[in-house]
Amino acid sequence: PIFNRQSRCAARQKRGKFGTLQRQRVGVMGIILDQPKYTVIDPAPGFVATFGNLSLSEVGIIVGSTIGSAAYGCLAGKGIRGMAGPSAGMAGVIGLLGGMGIAYQNSAGRLMGLKPNANEVAKYSPYKRPFIE
Hints:
This protein is mostly helical. Helix content is 49%, strand content 9%.
């Protein structure tokens, strides 16, 4: 189902740091306009649920992007004396964050029913769903 802004956004008022009244948006996430093509397991998975649902191939994406980026950074910094280690470390961190972003997006897509999720449907049958209610 498509949710409009009013049903997804709850606003509350709270006193700010200096006593001023401020409005806060509570529970606001990006609005997905695509209809799920597969069974929805969790319509709005959280951080723990999404990373708890990572498959082995997604862990491989994280590890591979980290190692590949670190190797590239080492080669890129090799020409300057003393820069191979720091550039490899920085490139490794960038690769780790990129790999985690791709893996998170794939895992959340499967939980929300936007990607094929036959394994998750079998794993989280209606009696075993830890993410809902």
